[in-house]
UniProtKB/TrEMBL annotation, chain B:
Signal peptide per UniProt: none
Name the record gives this protein: histidine kinase
CDD domains: HisKA
EC number: 2.7.13.3
Amino acid sequence: MAQLQTVLEVAPRSAGSPKRGLAPRGEARNLGHLYGREGRLFDKVDRRQVLAWTAAAVLGGSSQARSASSELRFGLTPVFLTSDLELLARLKAYLEKSTGFPVRLITRRTYQEITALLLSGQIDAAWICGFPYVVYRPQLALVAVPVWQGKPLYRSYLITGRDRPANSIDDLRGDVHAFSDPDSNSGWLVTATALARRNQAPDTFFSQSIYTWGHRNVIRAVASGLAQSGSVDGYVYEVMRETDADLVGQTRVVARSDLLGFPPVACAASSAREPRTAALQSALVGMRDTDQGRAVLSMLRLDAFSIEPPSLFDGIAQEVAVVRGAAG
Amino acid sequence: MTERSIPLAIKLPVVVTVFMAVVAAFVSERVLVRLEETQARHLGDLATVYLDGLSSALASPVVREDVWETFDILDRARQTNAGLKPVLTVVANTAGRVIASSDPKAVPSWSELPSRFLHQGAATPAIEPRDQESEAVARVDLSTGGQVVGSIHAVFDTAPLLAERRSVLITLIGTNLALTSVLAGVAFLVVRRMMRPVGVLAGHLQAGADRGVEPIPASVIERALKEFKRLYASYNDMAVAVREREEWSQRMAEDERLASLGRLASGMAHEINNPLGGLFNALDTLRQHGERSDVRAKTLDLIERGLRGIRDVVRAALVTYRADEAPRLLHREDVDDLRLLVAPEIRRKDIALAWTNGAYAPLPLGASPVRQVLLNLLLNACEATRFGGEIRFSADVDEGQFVAVVDDDGPGPPDRLRSILESQANFVPRERGLGLLIVQRLLTDLGGSATVHPSPSGGTLIRVVVPLPSEVLADVA
């Protein structure tokens, strides 16, 4: 069941009612400024993004016309497992059939690379994490959010070796700790927030932090003993408990976070109103209505994709604020 | 001595076993040495491929000291490596600290490189087998741009190699043991089968000495190998020839007895005929001048002496040849009587007979067999002696034994004489024996013996000794 092991984190649209679809470009820019106040990084990216838009504006409709006529480029982050070709093939086939566009699936090693492609307009949409979505909320718009176990929500787990008697994050002080990705909500932000609330930072609380660039790798690192504990996506962990019981069996959950917004499919705010984006949204939302779509959902162990408000990710935004505050 | 006493059926299998053991030891040693070399080369190749494969992937993560990526590469390499497996792989930086290992629980990151690994730098993969620990440790330095940035260490489990070597050794020993015992057994059976005809032949030859020569039965010959069939056939030819000769010899002995009897009879007839002529003359004289008392008395005396001579001859012959006669004591006169029996031969050949007969009391010996023995020896001596020769005869009792000596001046004892007379076995003479066979048999019955010596006169001296029964020795003495 390795086909389940790809979580797609797609940039959602920014503001407005999910029912109304994607926010217009201007609105997104405004929101970007609004959220940009939250940190220096945002300002920087925002400036870069503004430059990109400026360039697009100078070049006029030609680039837009070209992109409109070409394929639908859909980015996937390697949160789960990127090597399941069957899942990728089925997803591609479903999306092509449902949207009517030729689809190209694009995978990269890190969240950051996919986020940068999305922000720079080189891909039309991507399945990203809630954390980059919150950070770049002004420039992004939600397309759809996966529904898992009946809710568009998931948790982050703190895990450790099977035989270790630890009951909370406080017992993990001094560990070699495995994070998934510095841009991952469940694989970094949740733990960093918990530490920030204790006036701690990962660098000081843990003896060493390791980035494994994937939730599966966090489990491998903890199971092998390379790391004594790790921060992992609860959805990935639960699915792997089914598909990779031997590996997961060597670990145990120390703590579960509150429910947070599930990694969404997002697009650049500027392209939210384009027909391709709308086609993608309806394809995702309608996935559970066709056999082909249900097969993909079943491989992903998801119930459906739904349209959710950006407020779904307010919890993650609060975490960002806590971490930023602690850092500041 | 020992060598001769071990049968061939044991000796050959032992030689086969020793030979096989030497060959097996040599072959096994070569096989194991070659196997060990092959395994060492195989292990070296494997270690080189494994470490070289890792070093290209690991250079960059080691420079960055990226624990996860280093571990990820080691972990994936372990998963994909089939066959002879590295049980532990460790990557260390130049300071000798572990960046990551394939088993972080045993060798955690940032610990000191354990001492079991090679600490000597190795630009190309170096491998050190440690058979006691059933492992081999390998090392290669990681370098990028000519600069050493760290080292990769791997531990290979060589237990399967050692087990393979052990199993090869056991197989070799088992195979060689089985082969050796099979060959030794085959050698034993083959030799025993090959030697069986020799045993049959030996048995027949041995039986031949005791009970007479028997041919080998046709059923045995039929089963024998070609070479032994020929051997058996030759033996049977010989056996038949021996039998024929035996029968012929017996016939000859009988003929001889008849011949000697005939000679004796003719001598006796002569002995009787001589006085008969005188008796007839005496009868004529009586008829013509019977009225003269002096002539009558003289003539009757002549007739009486002639008849007494005839009576003596007849009596001697009767005593000598009546085998059914009841045994009686040997009187010295019985011996003296023999002079009468050989007298015709003595006269015929003009032989001088020197006769000595001791003054002994009658002896508890069968008179008949003793007389026949001595008569035959005397007749034999007459035969051997030339015309006008001399024969010396003596008989007496000496130290509880009756001893008689017949000494002639003939051409000396022929070999066959000694072989017949002195033989203890039931010997069959090849040539005409002149009654010697009878002598030998009679002497055997009497418990006596005859020895043949060269005579001082150049002829033959035969000494006959017959021990007297012990209970009468006192009387005789």
